[in-house]
Amino acid sequence: MTQRPPIESVDRAVRVLQALASAGPSGVTLVELAGQVELNKATTHRMLAALKYRDFAAQDLQSGRYLLGGAAGELGAVFFNNENLAAMVHPALLALSSNISELIHLGMLNGAKIVYLDKVEPDRAVRVFSAIGSAVPAVSTAMGRALLSARGIQEQELAPYMEALAAGTRPAALKVEDVWRQLEFARSNGYAREDQENEEGISCIAVPLYQGTRPIAAVSITAPAERMTTRRMAELYGTILADLGPMLPPGLSLE
């Protein structure tokens, strides 16, 4: 026997929201939506009116198609803000660091820079000049490259990110073609890499964290360059997939 939802009107509204989210930016007609949620057109229209009132649904004035409203996206953004995200992911980062005995960072894009949100240090010391709250040019870091590649940034869109490189520092030597090659590598291999471009003697790999289909943050593994061989980087990526993915809180994933 199928269990009935405790509050049927709420269940209907949730089904409409889920259908709007699945429709994506192209939206959906009233008839299509009613068929998908298995409600009549009048009931579906009433649900849409209520959702539109709170900006959880929107309607394209030209086509008449319905889309997910801005308030739906804002809910996730508020929930996964910097402080909440760091607190939610921290236990998984602790476990990963303990497993591989390496330094772990959590970071998020802020303009053209990566901001460090969390840092978990292993028992063996790794001297890295990173601090929670500090920011570095995204294109010089594995975390930044992981997020830029996941967001589909194209070579011609890299100019503002390249401008963030401070003159006279190690990253300033990076050329746009170098960064583009690294983004292509990340897209092809699933992880981004950094080889002493941000800090001498230090190498990293990083993967994006997704909220649904949206890349919102990145996790990196940092180690002395002599330990970060090409083979070791690939092994660590496998460890991230196997160990970190299942430990992430609901709503977050590695893909």
From TrEMBL:
Residue span(s) of domain IclR-ED: 71-254
Keywords attached to this entry: DNA-binding, Transcription, Transcription regulation
Listed InterPro entries: GAF-like_dom_sf, HTH_MetabolicPath_Reg, Tscrpt_reg_IclR_C, Tscrpt_reg_IclR_N, WH-like_DNA-bd_sf, WH_DNA-bd_sf
Molecular function GO terms recorded: DNA binding; DNA-binding transcription factor activity
GO biological process: negative regulation of DNA-templated transcription
Pfam families assigned to the protein according to its UniProt record, in alphabetical order: HTH_IclR, IclR_C
All copies of domain HTH iclR-type, residue ranges: 7-70
Name of the protein: IclR family transcriptional regulator
